[in-house]
Design goal:
429 residues; Aspartate Aminotransferase, domain 2; Aspartate Aminotransferase, domain 1; alpha/beta; homodimer; 13 strands; 2 domains; globular
């Protein structure tokens, strides 16, 4: 096999014709496949069905502090749920606020609050002429949608296998007071699957921010989402690093049980300094009568306040691992030897991020769609949906069963090759 | 027995001395009683314990549209839950958006959205020099806390047994473009327990608002919360009235199952015109991955999509009715003949609103507290916590068991009498 880039225009033409035969054969099958969404499969959801029986008449409705979870009260969460989320974020349970089922909703609410009221006495962002957020890319499209909603200017920060380009981050955060935040998914990052290095996290904690209300929005969504029992990367604890650096207020950390128990019925929460938490409590005292404590109790009991999480996650891994390995193996066999793409083989998380030849991502997604495979739109992992290189495609292998995933990946690779041979011909022409 | 107002200063003095003996005897008991909060009692919560088994492996996790409720998806709610809430609001289920467990949170989010983005293309309230809300008083303190949070100027609107003073409402809404909203609890109003008359609702629907983004925030929190099987007041359907008046966009209506199933584990939602709902959907597409659908399914199945609600509510009534009757009977026996207060005997809802002699409410609440009975702070049912007459005290009889409620009411009445004799002596002096 040869790198496409080493082929002559005639060879490329010949390859394209062969690929078109395969492509049309795929289209003829009229498949309907989907690798677009980071949704757990139904067998993964089945893992936690015992959770549904975790709150019953027999085992009681009260949290350990004596609150009847069925009733009003306990606006900031019950101790059991605090400990559950603290075990994920590796923090003091007393510094945890428990929210509803969507951590995205919590991030949205914080940013909305900063916009309307300002954080810790700072000017509300809505009253400032410009507010900027740093966005390591590729990243999570729904983060970017939140900041875009509030008219916040988003700045792409390139990433490598260690995390965001910290020289660039320091340049912005330390000098520009309009930079108010930075989105981060530090572990098994969405969609690259990489983990931030200790040095990156230490430099983040050490940021001498020009804006007092600059915060790291640290979405630890995949903190315990390992694919391998014997290869579980650890990342530096941001909270400790921030305290050591003398910047205890510089972060908000978020997590949820969405991809531990039920994506649609988990619990979410945050940790932060007491300074920051008191601000959030002020908000919540007005914005809600409190989140669903029965579901907090359900999640906390089922997960044994965190003690059962490693076991539950290995059950997920047993289902997810073969899917990730299938994707990576197929890429290694078919794409690697042709030199038309790159990817990181992740050790956890929910995504494989494929970097196609520049200028090919949109075309690959289009070709795949017309052959019955829905992918995340090209550009989605970038602010404003704009991938400057038109290169990154997020592959979400979790939802389809193995057979469908294999079919989808076969079509995907034909599309990658087809778009690449055409691009190379254009360039040679 | 004599009206206190007809007593001489000597008689009042004598009465005060007798009351002080009773009061000190109460203090000596060192009771800890609470009539402050509209929380259901644990026996009421027990009514719905079967709900916990409504979603299990055996009866399935899917909504009727095929969605696995355990997973992501279905951001705006599942059809079963839409029908459940539609049965409460008497509206088209397709015009229902289902939210989390807190309808207050939904109201907060809408007002926050109006503040940051503006409703239906109107100027965001945060960019206006002044925004006003009309607040029928006494009303729900947490409504007022939301508008106060956003710096919205609140205007007291007096109420009588038919609802808010509509002459005053029309005067404001039809002429003042800075009036952007009006809080309403139309049925068994918190805390008066009154129901808006058909004429009031029709006049609300007919408001020729000066501001295009004026909305009635219609919190139908007690829509089905009757105390009597054979005496269930109906109110005019606002939605139909608004359509008839040619003002389909003038309202947002809210409800929840918080006081039907679990106060801490129900579901909430809203109905509005398609024009308004599309705005809410835009917001929710950014602000959340969607609310807990497992809990939607649980509530909807248990309540048989609304069909079981009358039966469930009569179970609540059987528990609540004797408490309300106790409160009203005691007031009638002890306070009525002395002419030192008034109240409405409600046919539903969660509160009895006691109107003390002017200038006595704070003192009554203080006296009660020092005798071991916690009441809702005087002033709480008014914007900014300021009751202009210092007269209204909200009595919440739902939480304490009958014995405790009786003890608390006895103390309460001693405090009412004591504050009143002192006030009258001051006036005579």
């Amino acid at each position: 096999m040869k790198y496409y880039s080493e082929m002559t225009i005639e060879e490329l033409k010949e390859e394209e014709e062969a690929l078109m035969i395969s492509y049309e054969a795929c289209q003829a099958k009229e498949l309907r496949l989907n690798m677009a969404r980071g949704k757990p499969s139904s067998v993964q959801l089945d893992i936690s069905n015992d959770m549904l029986g975790a709150v019953t008449k027999r085992n009681g409705y009260h949290s350990e502090d004596g609150l009847d979870c069925r009733n009003y009260g306990g606006t900031f969460g019950i101790p059991e749920a605090q400990r559950t989320l603290a075990s994920i974020m590796e923090c003091n349970p007393e510094h945890v606020i428990v929210y509803g089922n969507s951590s995205l909703n919590l991030m949205f609410d914080l940013i909305s609050y900063a916009y309307t009221h300002g954080l810790n006495g700072n000017t509300p962002w809505g009253k400032l002429p410009e507010v900027k957020f740093l966005c390591p890319v590729p990243g999570y499209d729904r983060h970017f949608a939140v900041t875009e909603h509030f008219g916040i200017k988003m700045i792409n920060i390139p990433m490598d296998e260690n995390g965001p380009d910290m020289d660039m981050v320091e340049q912005y955060v330390n000098n520009d007071p309009t930079v108010k935040g930075m989105w981060c998914v530090p572990k098994f990052e969405n969609p690259e699957g990489i983990c931030y290095s200790d040095e990156v996290i230490r430099r983040m904690a050490g940021l001498r921010r020009a804006a007092d209300d600059f915060r790291i929005y640290y979405d630890n969504a995949y903190a315990v989402h390992y694919l391998y029992e014997d290869d579980q990367p650890k990342i530096l604890n941001l909270i400790d690093a921030c305290v050591e650096a003398g910047h205890p207020d510089i972060y908000f950390e978020f997590c949820s049980t969405s991809k531990i128990t039920y994506a649609g019925g988990g619990i979410s929460g945050m940790t932060a300094s007491e300074n920051n938490l008191s601000e959030v409590r002020n908000l919540m005292s007005v914005s809600t009568i409190g989140y669903d404590k029965v579901n907090m109790l359900r999640n906390a009991r089922y997960l044994k306040e965190g003690a059962a999480i490693p076991e539950v996650m290995m059950k997920h891994a047993a289902i997810l691992r073969p899917k990730f390995e299938l994707v990576v193996n197929m890429l290694e066999e078919e794409i690697g030897p042709r030199g038309i793409g790159s990817w990181v083989s992740p050790k956890g998380g929910y995504f494989v991020s494929f970097h196609a030849m520049k200028g090919c991502a949109k075309e690959i997604v289009r070709l795949a769609k017309e052959a019955g495979v829905v992918l995340t739109p090209a550009g989605a992992p970038f602010p404003y949906g704009k991938d400057p290189d038109d290169s990154v495609i997020r592959i979400a292998p979790s939802l389809p069963p193995m057979g469908e995933l294999k079919d989808a990946m076969e079509i995907f690779m034909i599309c990658v090759k087809l778009a690449s041979v055409r691009k190379l011909q254009e360039e040679l022409a």
